[in-house]
Structures are given as C-alpha cells and as structure tokens.
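Collaborator request log, item 7. Partner lab (contact: R.S.) asked for a structural prediction of Glycerophosphodiester phosphodiesterase to inform their binding assays.
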Amino acid sequence: MTGLKKIQRLMGKTIRRKRVWIPLVILVFVYVNNSSLLAKPKTGDPYLLAHRGLAQTFDLEGVDWDTCTAERIHKPEHPYLENTIPSMRAAFEAGADLVELDVQLTKDNRFAVFHDHMLECRTEARGKIRDYTMADLKKLDVGYGYTADGGKTYPFRGKGTGLMPLLDEVLQAFPDRELLIHVKSDDPKEGVMLAGQLEKLPRDRLQRLSVYGGDQPVKALKERIPDLRTMSRESMKQCLLPYIAVGWTGYVPSACKNTQLHLPDRIAPWLWGWPNRFLNRMDQAGTRVILVKGSGGFSDGFDSPEDLKRLPDNYNGWIWINRIDRIAPLLDNHN
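Returned to partner:
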C-alpha cells in the first residue's frame, strides 16, 4: 500500500505540473507565433490610397449616409473636384499609389464615375443618376453645389461642366495605374454588368484593379472574375470572424485569400499578429490590407501629421487618405 501511495502522489504531482506548464507552453506559442517583435520588419513608407482622387474635404461631424457633403466643404485649397479625371491625375502626380473612385449605373446601362445616387447635391439637376443617360450627365456641372460658407458663395460653379467621366474613360486615362472601384449599390445586376466590362481587359490590367461595394454586386462580380481582388461587408466577415477564432495558430482562412480588407485603426490591433505578422500573412494570401483612421465611419483618413502618429512603428502598409497633397510630401518616397 505504501508503494501504491507513493506512485499516486507522484502521479498527482505530475498532473499538477502539467496543469501549469501545458497552458504556459500554449501561451508562449501564441505569443511567439503572433508577436510582431519577432517578425521580420518591412521597410519603406506606407502605400497611399487617395480617396476619390484629390477632392474637397468636409467636416465629418454629424455626417450620415444622405448628408449633402458638398454643402459643408472646408475652405478650398485646390481647384479639384472628386471623381474627375483631373482630380485623379493630380492625386497620382502628388504621390498616390492607388486612387479610389465611385461608379453609378446610368439609364443607358453605362458606369458613370460619381459618388451620389441623387444629383441635386453636387449638380444643377435633380433626381436619380440612373434616370439619366450618360449623354445627359455629360452636360451637367459637377461643381455646382459646392459651398464652404453656407450658400453665400459657390466657388466651383461653372467649373465642373462636362467633368463627370465614364469608367471607360478613367481606365483609358490611367492604363498602368492602380485603381479601386467602389460600386455604390447593392444590385447584383451591377456586379454582372461590371464583370462584363472588366473581363474584357488584359490580365495584367485586371491585376491593377480592385472592387468593393455592396454584398450582392461584389458576390456576382467575384463569381464571374474569381481572380479579381474584391471586398464587401460580407467578405470581410467571412475572412475576419474565422481568423479571430483560429488566427492565433497562424492559419489564414480561405476567405482571406485574394481579397481586400479595410481595417479601422482602432480595431486592427485586436487581430492576431497585428501589425507585422498579420500583414505578412495577408501578403502571402494575396490580400491587400488598407488601414482606415478611426472606427470605420464615413471615410475618415490619415490627413494630417498628427494622424500619421497613429500608425504603428515602421508601418509600411496601405493607408486611406483624403488629402494626398498634404500627406505625400511628409513621406520620403512620395514626392
């Protein structure tokens, strides 16, 4: 009995030790596998995404989905209007690596580059953009509704006539540039139609394009062009929820491959391996990660020197910018 008790005591001690060191080993593994301190750091400056080209900015406080932002712009510091070819060209010349643009379907089933579903905020016309042909839209002044002083003056009236471009015109104007196309609806028909247009492009051109927007059009587009980098709210969930569950192991879910993620900088630090491990994993999966300032609200970007201080040390991933003319000169490789 004495020998049996000794064996039992030894087994009890062994079990108690395992209860301590097994969780400890797991914790060490999780730390080592996800610590950016042990990951190979990247070098270079961040990559810059210019939201709507070089655009007029506005006060974000109180902005809702139907707010007319043209009626609340800051005092203009440059002559460019969002979503126009001159604004995109100015953004690239200022140092943008990628320009984002919005598309809307017209009455004659063409893709106009314009942000709003309705016309009265920025132009002299009224009604839905899909109720007009592209020929009609070409006659409008896209600078008509902009004011920085509550309607006392309209500094861009008469300067935006004819500047609403077709998506085709943008693709032709910037054949070798990276573009991010925003589908502004949740109509699957638009995804099918956009796929019909984009799939005609050479493969190397498609590799420099990406698309995001409503769940339904993005899903329809991805089904037609599987290799195209896309993003929607649903695709983000399909990637990030399983990653949060198992990403500590280093596993990257299949839904995270060949896609795009727009991550608010207040949420990104909660992801396994942020920043370097996470970014390396996504790079290997063919996925582009774009960091957005704040909590993911209305297009808040890294638009000031103070905003850049929010970035992780030595961060060289993609960042969302509304004032490329201000930010690019602050970074050595974008001038």
